[in-house]
Amino acid sequence: MIRFDGVMKRFGQNVVLDELNFAVEPGEFVTLIGPSGSGKTTILRLLMTLEQVSGGRIHVGGDCLSHMRRGERWVPADDKYQRQIRKRIGMVFQQFNLFPNMKVLQNLTEAPIRALGLSRAEAEERARDLLELVGLSDKIDAHPSQLSGGQQQRVAIARALAMRPDVLLLDEVTSALDPELVAGVLALLKDIAKTTDITFLCVTHEMGFARDVSDRVMMFDHGHVLEDAPPDKLFSEPDHERTRTFLQAVL
Ligand code: ADP
Question: Tell me, what's a Pfam family for it (predicted)?
């Protein structure tokens, strides 16, 4: 579902990802861990096409995201091409990023109407089902500012699901929440991961959650995959000293 082939990403002289190779199978839940600055968020931003590769290729669902064919040649993909592929990818951000001037219902219907061409009635039906799933049916007419952080994040999750994505990217989704709201959001995500065939790529500092839901955990260091293993192996008996010291610092 996701494949990075020799991906390079530079910001000026700073090489952030260096010949990065990895793949995520359909339906897998893969968590990226590692020290701050190791390139985890850059990977998510490349998939959202908020950044472009400096070299190598990214594939999503069998199609190239980073490059497109022009006649016989492959050239860097343009925005119109990338928008088509990006429709398959949803993202939930640390800061929720809801549309503040729209009610909850409209937050959920806007993109499906505009980007998928759903009718308003279809989009609203989908939105109501999703609000029920995330336990916020009674907030359908609220504005984001009237909701708690946990409720806003549930709306953001529902908004991402409204696009029926194949891939869901989670970027530190509980970091901005009050501690007592974290568990509810994580339980919701676990439930979605277990009951759908969505492929997840998750950046988190919640090691208990990572261990609980991940099929695989990838430990990053300086833009490389240092270790890639099932969570029980990576958390209990990591191969690398660097992984061990990182885990000791965060657990
Ligand atoms: P992580 O998510 O693992 O903390 P990031 O992917 O955010 O790491 O950052 C990796 C490196 O890339 C850092 O050194 C960071 O300073 C750099 N970086 C990220 N985005 C930019 C940008 N837009 N411009 C310049 N440098 C950036």
Answer: ABC_tran
